[in-house]
Amino acid sequence: MPGFSDPLQGLRCNGPVETIRLRAVQQPSRVERLLVSFGSNSGIVAEGSYLVRNPNVMTPLLQRAIADAVSKGHAWCCWTDDSRVWLITGELSLALSRESGSPVLDVRVYREDGALADSDCWLVDQDGKWRRCAVTGGADSALAE
Predict the structure, then answer these.
(1) What long-range pairs does 18-26 form, CB within 8 A, spacing at least 24?
(2) What is the pLDDT of residues 101-115, one digit of tens each?
(3) Terminal-to-terminal C-alpha distance of the chain
(4) What strands, in cross-sheet order, belong to the sheet with 75-80?
(5) Which of 43, 55, 99, 142 has CA 20 to 30 A from 136's CA?
(6) What confidence category does residue 28 fall into, taking pLDDT thresholds of 50, 70 and 90?
(7) Stretch 33-55: mean pLDDT, rounded?
(8) Integer Rg of the chain from CA
(9) Cα–chain-centroid distance for residue 95?
(10) For residue 144, what are the CA distances in angstroms to 32, 94, 103, 131, 137?
């Protein structure tokens, strides 16, 4: 987006990700910027949609989902194209981010009726593209290509 700073700036690293830095990224405002990047670049939200920042204009069911997310310390973002709504909540996964060396969001996407439509972990790659993480049961790795 023109005029916006890169929300991923300073979050990628070549070596192991430090827990202290990850905890700073966990702050809701930083996670919210990652969620905006995710919503804008993951293909989940329709092109041409715009952000809705005021929860009071949303349905009571979406307001409840937002309140639940905020009570857990999660960030949220909402988009609309004037006919559909996408509410996305999430938090940074410290363990998966540490392992991957890049931010990994645990994301939940809600429909307009407040029902959970999707829930998964998403990784941002070196090119700034978001992709789903496959969590494996193996002890060696929590991430799979």
Answers:
(1) 19/94, 19/98, 22/92, 22/94, 22/97, 22/98, 23/94, 25/92, 25/97, 25/103, 26/91, 26/92, 26/94
(2) 888 999 999 998 999
(3) 28
(4) 50-52, 75-80, 85-92, 104-110, 116-124, 130-132
(5) 43
(6) low
(7) 92
(8) 15
(9) 15
(10) 25, 16, 15, 11, 10
Residues 6+ apart with CB under 8 A from 74: 28, 31, 89, 90, 91
Closest CA to 143 of 114, 112, 121, 119: 121
Euclidean distance between CA atoms 20 and 12, whole angstroms: 14
Question: Is 142's pLDDT higher than 50?
Answer: no
Q: Whole-angstrom Cα distance, residue 47 to residue 65?
A: 24
Write down the pTM of the prediction. Answer: 0.74
pLDDT by residue (tens digit) across 49-93?
999 999 888 999 999 999 999 999 999 999 999 999 999 999 999
pLDDT at 18: 53
Q: Which residues contact 81 (CB under 8 A, 6 or more apart)?
A: 46, 48, 49, 50
